[in-house]
Amino acid sequence: MGxxxxxxxxxxxxxxxxxxxxxxxPEQTVSTEETKDYYLKKRxxxxxxxxxxxxPREGGAxxxxxxxxxxxxxxxxxxxxxxxxxxxLDVTHVKQKGKSWAKACDGAYMPFEYNNHYYLEEA
Length: 123
Hints:
By secondary structure, the chain is mainly beta. The protein has strands at 6-7, 29-31, 36-42, 62-63, 75-83, 86-95, 102-103, 109-111, 113-114, 118-122. Strands 2, 3, 5, 6, 7, 8, 9 and 10 form an eight-stranded antiparallel β-sheet that branches. A two-stranded antiparallel ribbon has the order 1-4.
């Protein structure tokens, strides 16, 4: 596995507020559910997996990419958030096909839908 490290971490004041206390700003973050497992699936051939994405929150930390990005058939574990009307998974663990669960890089995110190609499906 490659080295993972968090860069430029900053706090977002909305992260710890209950959903009903967050304003109408569409860029604010809403945590929508507890930790769950998801399959990384794709609609068409092409790539062999998806690289980790940076924290989608305004001022969120970035991730230093590693060679342990999710490959086709991987499972991801994390918490679903919504930022600017789009769903993202704040990934805590990854399980490559045929392997055991491993801790994901800090600051690793995955969109629930990407370019009508990859998507996350609840396990």
